[in-house]
Amino acid sequence: MNKIKIHIRRLVENALEEDIGYGDITTDGILVGNLISKGILLAKESGILAGKFAFTEVFSILDDEIKCNFFKNDGDNFDKGCIIAEISGISSNILKGERTALNFIQHLSGIATLTSKYVKIADKYGVKIIDTRKTLPGMRLLQKYAVKAGGGLNHRIGLYDAALIKDNHIKAAGSISAAVDSIRRKIGPTVKIETETFDLKDVAEALTKKVDIIMLDNFKPENISEAVKLIAGRAAIEISGGVNLDNLEEYCRLKPDYISVGRLTNSAPALDFSLKLE
Questions:
Q1: 134 included as an active-site residue
Q2: 3-state SS assignment for residue 50
Q3: Tally of CB atoms within 10 A around 247
Q4: Is 161 a catalytic residue?
């Protein structure tokens, strides 16, 4: 079992422990014996699926004889009223896992669905939508997976896989130049470096240090246009801050390479599903 599967299994185990605790007093008080039920996972609104494996992992941990037969895969579109999956097994175990399984698939499908709305607009301009580290503790790998299911791209996963110089790094180092020089001395020239910038002066300084990606943080559209002209292809451009579905097209027209959107993972509304037993 690889590290990602181990991580997900532990996450699901913790979620089940949180919900079931010392036992399901309602289900255990009503159901006796091994009554078998069949049911369906029903979509109550349209969207993009994500979290199939987390859903099935819930029931695998509770009872590996519970069968989940999915008719849709992660990344697939579905309409309101669509039967996403059939489930069968011991009724009491299905009921014990119902809420936890729904929580995972509703949250992750909500992220995938919101991401797809951004991607649909940005694709017309050749702009890539990327996520951020604004994720729920412990849920990052799953949330970033859901962004990819919705057609987006992952920025760095954590602090360990990319160098991103932020405002407090710049203050601590004294300047963008000092921060870049320090990183290159310590980690060498092969690691890509990105830096936040806050005005055109910062952009010009970042260009002198030949960074790979320049983030235009909370720039107004008119200032972004000037920055794009100044950069002139010498670095990739990321726009960050204040972008939403209402103004996304305006920012895409400015021709950045990437637009990062924190709300993909920290504010996406859950998609509505229900699990109905026959």
A1: yes
A2: coil
A3: 11
A4: no
Active site residue 166: yes
Catalytic hit among 99, 128, 133, 156: 99
Q: Is 99 a catalytic residue?
A: yes
The pLDDT of residue 2: 78
DSSP bridge pairs for 47: 78
* Domain 3-114+269-277 CATH superfamily: Quinolinate phosphoribosyl transferase, N-terminal domain (3.90.1170.20)
Task: State the average pLDDT over residues 196-217.
Answer: 97
Of 38, 134, 156, 184, catalytic: 134
Query: Among 269, 209, 267, 206, which Cα is nearest to 238's?
Result: 206
Residue 31 has pLDDT above 90, yes or no: no
Which token pair is 48?
Answer: 């993009």
Chain centre to alpha carbon of residue 273: 19
Q: Which tokens sit at 122?
A: 């940005």
Chain length of the chain: 278
210 counts as catalytic = no
Tokens coding 118? 């951004």
Q: Which is the catalytic residue, given 74, 131, 196, 238? A: 196
Q: Which of 120, 148, 156, 166 is catalytic?
A: 166
Sign of the C-alpha dihedral computed for residues 215, 143, 70 and 274 taken in this order? negative
pLDDT for 53-65, tens place per residue? 999 999 999 999 9
Cα distances from 105 to residues 41, 77, 108, 140, 153, in angstroms, run 10, 14, 5, 15, 20
Give the C-alpha separation, 244 to 241, whole Å.
9
| Token reading at 60 | 């695998």
What is the fold of 119-266? TIM Barrel (3.20.20)
- The full set of domain ranges for the chain reads 3-114+269-277, 119-266
